[in-house]
Specification:
single chain; alpha+beta; Alpha-Beta Plaits; 4-stranded antiparallel sheet; 4 helices; about 40% helix; elongated
Length: about 150
Amino acid sequence: MRYYETAFLIAPDLSEEDTEQLISKMGEIVKKNKGRMIHVDKWGKRKLAYPIKKHDSAFYVFFNYEGIPETYAELERQFKQKETIIRYLTLRKEEEPTFEEEIKKKPKEKKTEKPAKKEEKKPAQKEENKSVPKEKKEKEPKEPEKGEKS
């Protein structure tokens, strides 16, 4: 089974009840098609960057789920049939997604010293770059050729 993330935008003219019903129906489609819902993220109504199907805002919803390719295909087929879904996008993830709630529950890990090593390398590289122009300055000036005035 593969991991997927699907984002879809619901038209803003739906009531809150209708929006919740639509989201739950889409979640049921995942379960019916041998999928397992991992996380549902509802962002709510947000202004769009540009109008889509004559709408200036939309209700944003993100599904993270595990399933077979037919699972997301059926979900996208349903999106095409619903006029209230104004835009959708599905991405296949390589690993199971992690979320902020899970990260907060885990104990904090100590920071590694790798970033400090990177910072030490950067000044050394800059010094090397600075030395190149100095070498050019240290070269002896050219003597004027015969026949040229100085």
